[in-house]
Amino acid sequence: MSNEKGLKVYTSKPWEMIKTSFLVITWIVLGMHLEIVGPTLQVLAVQTGVSTTGISDILVARGAGYMFGNLGGALTQKVVKKYPEMLLSISFLIASITIFITPFITNLHLLSVVFFFQGISQGVTDLGGTSLMLAMWADNVAAPLNVVHLGFGFGAVFTNFLVRPYLVEKSDSMIKIPYSIIGFICLLITIGHFIFAIREYQIKRKSLQNRPVDYTTVSTKVDSNENSNEKKEKISEYSPRSCGNGYFNYGLSMSIIWILYMFFLSGNDQTFGKFFFTFVQKSNFSSGISATWFMIVYWLSYSVGRLICAILSMFVSVPVALSGLWVCGIILAITWFIFVWVIKLTSLNLLILGAFTGLVFSPTFPLSFAFINQRLNVNPLLVGLLLSGASLGAMTFQKLAGIILDAHPKQFPTILITCVILSIIFFIIAMIISSVHQKNLPSKPKEIVYRNNEEEQIEIYLNHNQ
């Protein structure tokens, strides 16, 4: 881990700072095009003639697309490493098209197909963006990753403000305007990442042209001593040993545990944000128009939570910050249980609970990735598998949420409580395994050949242009 502290490690890399800043804008727009479905979910249900259970199928389809995009990216690691900006450009082009056509579709099956492609766009965005951030910032990724993910909440807030005036009448034609605006903004992000892709290509090409070659050091003699002493172990990037820094059992067990952890973490995060609006409506606390205020407060607190953690993570270690969040998480889960099953929910305490839910749980996703990156060698394959576990959790609990909100709306917070408890259990298991592994490490760790992303991309470029 780097010994550099504070802002110096970030300000010393201006080009990476510029790319990170645009990724913040990217995540703002990601929040806009993904979260517009929240306040318009019931409009889409009326438009397609189905119930809440039925319309939840489109979110399940999007989750399937998200998993497909992540797995596809994980299996093509070299493409992800070589063309992350181009992948982000393509993903937002897909998002732009799907958002434009969504309000015009009246068939549930066709709408599910559209959302499947939107899920692919989301998966490629998450995989490409996260891999790019890990490559740029390595062990110092916690703060910038929180800042980037901070944009998602602001995008969701903007979307709720944008949609609110068009929910006056329950007419599908009213939502075409906000959907079209967001579709156009996605198109602008597509152009932006395409420009970044061209610029990255120019930078790499220029660095290769200016790379000096010292022909005097070239020798055909083989140094037998160097050959015999250099015993570096080369490991396939598709092996769990790669993730475990040379330890197969450690890499495999930790990968499985973190995938299960992400299943419940994302199951909570993705489900609560998508269905909180519907829960407020179904509980008769507010009308469709006023319920947007609950969502606005939720997403504002969501953004504030990530902003606070982005600042704290520059001065507090990631394990301490994440452990503190889960302590707050279990307290919040107990509070939900008390208000739902012991004390009666009211509009005021529901608003406050929703705000604290966003505040506490919003930083867990980026902080978890930063923590995993410190415990394992995180490559695009592992990122893809982790995000696939997250998408499977989202699919499972979103479908379950649709069924619960149709049959027993009061039990909706039970999903949050369950996911929090199970996430904490897997987090504790991972901490124990990691601590035991660190204690049992030999004094001289295994020497494994790892190359940074820039070196690998330069080699790929050279091979491609020979």
Can you tag this structure with a few keywords?
466 residues, 19 helices, globular, disordered C terminus
- The count of β-strands is 0
Helix content: over 70%
For the termini, the CA-CA separation is 36 Å
Q: What structural category do the secondary elements indicate?
A: mainly alpha
* Percent of sequence in beta strands: under 5%
List SSEs in N-to-C order: HHHHHHHHHHHHHHHHHHH
The profile of the biggest β sheet is: none
Rounded average pLDDT: 81
Number of helices: 19
Shape: globular
- Backbone CA Rg: 23 Å
Poorly predicted residue ranges: 213-232, 449-466
Question: Nutshell version of this structure?
Answer:
With 466 residues, the protein is mostly helical.
Please describe what this structure looks like.
This protein is mostly helical. Helix content is 77%, strand content 0%. It has helices at residues 8-11, 14-35, 37-48, 52-75, 77-82, 84-101, 108-137, 142-163, 176-209, 224-229, 240-243, 248-282, 291-312, 318-342, 347-361, 364-375, 380-407, 413-440, 453-464. Helix 2 (14-35) packs antiparallel against helix 9 (176-209), helix 7 runs antiparallel to helix 17 (380-407) and helix 14 (318-342) runs antiparallel to helix 16.
Give the arrangement of secondary structure elements.
Elements: H1 8-11, H2 14-35, H3 37-48, H4 52-75, H5 77-82, H6 84-101, H7 108-137, H8 142-163, H9 176-209, H10 224-229, H11 240-243, H12 248-282, H13 291-312, H14 318-342, H15 347-361, H16 364-375, H17 380-407, H18 413-440, H19 453-464
